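User: Predict the complex with nicotinamide-adenine-dinucleotide.
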Amino acid sequence: MKETKPQLQNPISQPPAPISILVTGGAGFIGSNFIHYMIKAHPNYIIINLDKLTYAGNLENLKDINRMDAGFKEQDLVGGGFENKIQNLKHQIQYPISDIQQSTRYHFVKGDIANTELVDYIFERFKPNYVVNFAAESHVDRSIENPKIFLETNVIGTQVLLDVAKKHWLASGKWKEGVKFVQISTDEVYGSLGPQGYFTEKTPLDPHSPYSASKAAADLITKAYFDTFDMPINITRCSNNYGPYQFPEKLIPLMINNALHHKKIPVYGDGKQIRDWLYVEDHCRAIDLVMQKGRIGEVYNIGGHNEMENIQIVNKICSILDELYPISKNPTSNMQHPTLKSYKQLISFVADRPGHDRRYGIDATKIHEELGWQPLVDFDEGIKKTVEWYLNNQEWMDRVTSGEYMKYYERMYSWR
Ligand SMILES: NC(=O)c1ccc[n+]([C@@H]2O[C@H](COP(=O)([O-])OP(=O)(O)OC[C@H]3O[C@@H](n4cnc5c(N)ncnc54)[C@H](O)[C@@H]3O)[C@@H](O)[C@H]2O)c1
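Assistant: Here is the predicted structure with nicotinamide-adenine-dinucleotide placed in the model:
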């Protein structure tokens, strides 16, 4: 008798397997934008955000994400029997388990990237496929005041992450499939340019501030893990970012905030320092591409093709504010400065920062040619969106500048 083949039923389409990413420094400016971007762009991704919540880390940047849910269960990620392990680890690490906020797609862990035991615990528990390391002390002026913490976080912290990732991803001389460490660096590691030329990935590193020196050191240790151990890594070096959720000690939010409160708008030196500005969401898209498709061991420059003098940026911000929120409508004005007609009248030139680099310019040809990336938001559109965001989120700005935002963590997590 002829054997009849069993009819194959249409396979029920399965959701793609979850992929987990350890994002460090995810409560900061770019990290929080990256988490927003990735949660929207990849429904099968699970994000673990490890952040120490320094003055620059603000969980309010992510408060809408705490409520998101894509239906993955804890056991999808960690396998059986894990709860027992958590109970054991609970006594071994100095972070109470209540510090770990749960949702199915987004987990927050408060802690230091330089804490080997904690990072090891996160690897045990969440088995990340990727590490994207944003965590850093990032403000040049602060690095001139106190360089030590820059070395502790930016250099030692990166080395700890690399080492723990290696421990979990390398077995019997073979790296696990589908894992990668992405180090988020900066164009500042290249030093300063004259009026001509651009930084390419081959430009020698020549950092000038303790901040950029610590970032260059982190790049080199990351590269060393590739050269020595074949670790799957990429390094991205991006130009200046702007957009929502930036801490108002950096140029653009500082200028907006001072203007709105009719404080002096301080411009360093002659204001003719040139930076290449990129809208933060374009940066996030570039990191996503590098993470998925970047050639192992490679460095990718990311830039906006948008060089501008600081003073041009400040003038643009003032013009947008004059249009969107004219002095006549700002209640502070009439009381404090009855003669003020334009925010530009608040601009004030102050002594330059020591060692201030004159010009940065990024050649982003490699990421364009290899990965097809280019910026999508042009500067005029991006800066208008950014000023609008800060105008619409003045409460966020007030809470950050008053330090009130630091109590958010206490309110959100202390009772858990
Ligand atoms: N902002 C830019 O224009 C720019 C441009 C290029 C590259 N970068 C790089 O991108 C990364 C993010 O920059 P940003 O502007 O978002 O910085 P940020 O200062 O806004 O955020 C840094 C985050 O890291 C956290 N953090 C600091 N020390 C930590 C530690 N020891 N352990 C865990 N978390 C810690 C902070 O709490 C904060 O949430 C940095 O590595 C920076 O060098 C920034």
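Residues 67-102 have pLDDT under 50 and may be disordered.
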